[in-house]
Structures are given as C-alpha cells and as structure tokens.
Write a structure and sequence with these properties.
There is one protein chain. 81% of the residues lie in helices and 0% in strands. With 272 residues, the protein is mainly alpha-helical. The protein has one domain. It is elongated and about 90 Å long.
C-alpha cells in the first residue's frame, strides 16, 4: 500500500484548519451544511450528467485504489520473468503452461498460456498490445471523471455564492446580519475551490499515475514474454528489462542470490 494520497490530503486539510486557528477563526464557520450540499452534491450531479452511468460507477469502483492501491515492484516482476526464461530454456515453452496455472496475475497468465499454445510472435504482440490499450482506456475513464469533477467544483461553488448573495440582498434591511450572511455566502466558493484542489484533482491525478504504472508494468511483462519466446538468455533478458525501468524504481531490489533463496512467484503474486 502506498499512503501518499492519504497523507497528502490529511496534510492539506490540516494546513487549512491550522490557518483558521491561527487567524482566530472558528472552524465551524466554514462547516455550513447549505454551501457544502450545493458544492458536493451539485458537483457530483453535473459530473454524472456529463458522462454515462457506467462511467460514474467505474470511477466510484476505482476510488478505493487511489488510497490503498498497491504499486507492483518492477524488480520482482523482472526476477519472475528471468525465472520463466530459465524454465523455458531448460524444459521448453510447453513447460510454461503449468506456470500459467499458478500465476495470479491475469495478464501474465494469459501471455504464458499463449506461449505454451505456440501462438505466433507477431500475433502475440498484437494481442498483448490490444489488451494493454484496452486497460489504458478503462483506467482513463476513472481518472478523467474525477478530473471533470475538479473542473466543475469551483463554478458550482460560485453558483452557491450567487444564490446566497441573492438572499443577502433580500435582507438589506437587517444590517446587523449582513456580515455573517455575506461570510456564509463565500463559504460555497471556498468549498468549491477546496473540493477541487484538495479532493477531486488529487484523486484524479493519483489514479492517472497508478494507471501509468500499471501500463508500464504490462509493457515490461509483454517485452519479457516475447523475449522468452525468442529464446533470449536469462542473463541478457534481465539486463534488457532492467534497462527499461527507471533506476529509482529498482532501488532496494534483491540480489540474484537472495532472489533465488525465496520464491519469485510468491513475491510477484503478493506485489501484483
């Protein structure tokens, strides 16, 4: 689990409420039900109206992964692919069918089964690239939906402020209450900006980054599988795959000796 999103949001809201305390303001002054209802429910409503119901459900389903999404280790995947290359060179591609049955990662399992079935290299590349492209399109629906909410939220907040100011103008005969009413009116704008920049946009950006990481992992797996099919030596395969991964993502990886001491399959399945 990568807690970056949860930590970041807690720090952001913590900074906002700390500022309120330092300014001597009461936190309850911004926790007003009416402005928050128009901002949050209004934003979600127009977000729903801007797409399809399936888009919204897909985005909601993807939401938990923004907070607890696991980031797979590239090093573990590389070790697993190197192990598979050794199996293929020693026992032939047909031996990979048994590995496909015990591999929990669906993408890698299907690729291994295709190798065992003798699928042509070009056809296999096309099939895997199509699967990666489909996954990218599905993931894009979720993060774009939250980005859309981030675009709507400030404007919805302004709408809430205008509605409240209309009420203020109706009560000009009560000057003692105008200050409080005007302050309350601008709370809607505040929550529009806060929800956009502290909630919707960070979540959308986080989901987009997770989608990029997953796509990179699938491409790495695809190149490894195709290299195995071509009969690439395990040592050369490891060097090639490591050259495809940024150095900071390979830090803390196990040495070759340590990797063989544990089951690479178990490590990969836990990280997937």
């Amino acid at each position: 689990m990568d807690p970056a999103t949860l930590i970041g949001l807690l720090l952001a809201f913590g900074a906002m409420f700390t500022m309120l305390q330092m300014e001597g303001a009461n936190v309850s002054s911004i926790l007003l039900p009416a402005p928050m209802i128009i901002v949050f429910f209004g934003t979600i409503a127009v977000g729903l109206a801007s797409g399809t119901l399936a888009d919204a459900l897909l985005a909601v389903k993807a939401l938990p992964s923004a907070f607890k999404g696991k980031i797979s280790s590239a090093s573990v995947l590389i070790e697993r692919l190197v192990e598979l290359a050794g199996i293929a060179r020693g026992n032939g591609l047909l031996a990979l069918e048994a590995e496909a049955h015990v591999t929990k990662d669906p993408f890698l399992a299907r690729a291994l089964q295709s190798l065992a079935d003798g699928v042509d290299g070009d056809d296999l590349r096309d099939a895997l690239e199509d699967e990666i492209a489909t996954r990218e399109r599905v993931d894009a629906v979720a993060y774009k939906w939250f980005a859309t909410l981030g675009g709507f939220a400030p404007t919805v907040g302004i709408i809430g402020t205008v509605i409240s100011l209309t009420h203020v103008l109706e009560n000009l005969s009560k000057p003692d209450e105008l200050g409080h009413m005007i302050a309350a009116a601008f709370v809607a704008t505040l929550w529009g900006l806060v929800s956009a920049n502290f909630i919707w946009l960070p979540i959308g950006t986080r989901l987009r980054r997770l989608a990029e990481i997953e796509a990179d992992r699938m491409v790495l797996a695809m190149e490894g599988i195709l290299a195995i099919q071509a009969g690439t030596q395990p040592i050369l395969l490891e060097e090639r795959l490591r050259s495809m991964v940024p150095a900071h993502e390979l830090r803390g990886s196990k040495s070759k000796k340590e990797a063989t001491a544990e089951s690479p399959l178990r490590e990969f399945e836990e990280a997937a």
